[in-house]
């Protein structure tokens, strides 16, 4: 039943995803030709670059943004569309570096990050199917205990949105499956159309005077008191540089390249379902995510398709047939979808850091070069926070948040380009094995 599947290809066009097929706007963005000059040059046309550009332009700085492919071409335009609170995993591990108050600030920023998205969509009237409601799904009883701890912590942080624990017997009010033993609903998180959000933010940046250039791959960078960024068609001179390439570094900067591991994540989209079918799958139209190492995340689109994603791959190789790879995972949750057609399949690279905290900072020995990357699965909200923190630092505003992120050290993955993905794949296989033993 896999007829009419759209095969993923990697070109300067967007990946042939459901998102690319349902964009609600086009923007006219030429390649760089000749020389441009600006206060800040940004490399990367995803959420990190776009939101840094907006924040800087709102503060009165001139900005040029260079994108190697198309705006939103990478993870920003391909992800599962889940907008979930929080940054990082287990931020208590950083207490020895930033103190207990710093850890609390990181947690509060993880809540504020979602609010930045909420306000940006409202301020610039971006149509991106933003829908509120999310549920963490428990695969085993210990997950439920973890949710209870999260619930209490969020309350202690003054979280203003509705939270509620869902016992096993009520889980079908959230998901039409008997696979889960409980859940926690968060009405302050939700889901959206990520490519429409990126394109809407690009239009917002243009309206503020940001100069955007697509199909403008950076070939080299001259560092110094003034940076000069070169492409095949021209160059940009700027006082300050921001590198926001995340998993698509491609050797641009060796320091940053070694600290982020590209990991493949994949999504399939069904044909449009009837209202009754869609309601049976996700009765409250929430985004959901389970707790396994090789997690499943899924939601409904605005036209009632099931968008089912997951299967984080550290091998560096995409499955030959994403639909064939992902379909059994979907049927494990919803076996009654066996005769439903898959119409889109796509994948892309997310950036993983060793400690799972977003890397937001300034290059050592290059005080005018900033970066943001390695969002480890929380990119939709954390990128928007990164844009805010980078702009504050660049504009000379006191940014406690930037200082906290910049203090946290990030190790370089061992093994270089050839060995780091296989080593991580082996490590993740061990975690999956332990997960199986734990039941």
From TrEMBL:
| Transmembrane segments annotated in the record for this chain | none
Q: Does the UniProt entry include the keyword Calcium?
A: no
FAD dependent oxidoreductase domain: residues covered: 39-392
Query: Which domain of life, per UniProt?
Result: Bacteria
Does the record's keyword annotation contain Transport?
no
Q: Which UniProt keywords apply?
A: Oxidoreductase
Which InterPro entries has this protein been placed in? FAD-dep_OxRdtase (IPR006076), FAD/NAD-bd_sf (IPR036188)
* Pfam family of the protein (one): DAO
Question: What is the name listed in the Swiss-Prot or TrEMBL entry for this protein?
Answer: FAD-binding oxidoreductase
